[in-house]
Hints:
The chain is 53% helix and 12% strand.
Amino acid sequence: MARGKIQIKRIENQTNRQVTYSKRRNGLFKKAHELTVLCDAKVSIIMVSSTQKLHEYISPTTSTKQLIDQYQKALGVDLWNSHYEKMQEQLKKLKDVNRNLRREIRQRMGESLNELTYDQLGNLIEDVDNSLSAIRERKFKVIGNQIETHKKKVRNVEEIHRNLLLELDARQEDPHYGLVDNGGDYNSVLGFPNGAPPRLLALRLQPNQPNLHSGGGSDLTTFHLLE
Length: 227
C-alpha cells in the first residue's frame, strides 16, 4: 500500500512536531554524511529546533569556520567584520549605560552634583526620599518579624514548662520518682547536665533521720535529688 502524500504545513501538535523534527534531522544528517563520503564534499548543517536546541553536522575533514571562510571568499563578503561591527555597537551602548549608572550612584552619594540643574536636584532629593521611605518600611517589617518570632519562642518555652509541671503532677504516685507522700514538700528545678539537654528534676524533702547524728542538738535534714 502506497504511503499518502504528507501536506507540508506546520504540525500543530507539539509532540508530533518534535518527533518529526528528530526523525527528519537524523535522515538529513545521514544524507549529508553519505554525500561527504561518496562525493568527497564538505558539508556543514546547523539546525535549531523550536525548543532552541542546537544540532550540527560537519564533515569530518573540515570545520564550520573553514566552510564559512570559503563561503565569504566565494561571495566576496566579510561576515566576520559585519558581526564585529555589531558587537562594537552593542559594547558602546553597554558602556554608556554603565557610565550613566555610575554617575547616578555618585549623585545619590552626594557627589558629582555641580552638573545638575535646580530641577534635577529637586528630582534627586525626591528619589532619595522615596528610597529612604522604602528602606525604613523594610526595616520596620524585619524588626516586626523578629519580635513576633521571639514572642513565639517565649510562648513555646512557657508551654513546655506548663506541660512538664502537669506531667510531674500526674506522676506523683509513681514510686520511680519517689513522690508517694501527698503531704510532703516538693519543688522543681531545671537542670543542665554537662553535654545533655535541660531536664526537669524533682526535689523531695525527706523526714529527719536521727541515726545520722549522735548526741543532742538539732536534727539533721537530708535532701534527696531524684530524676
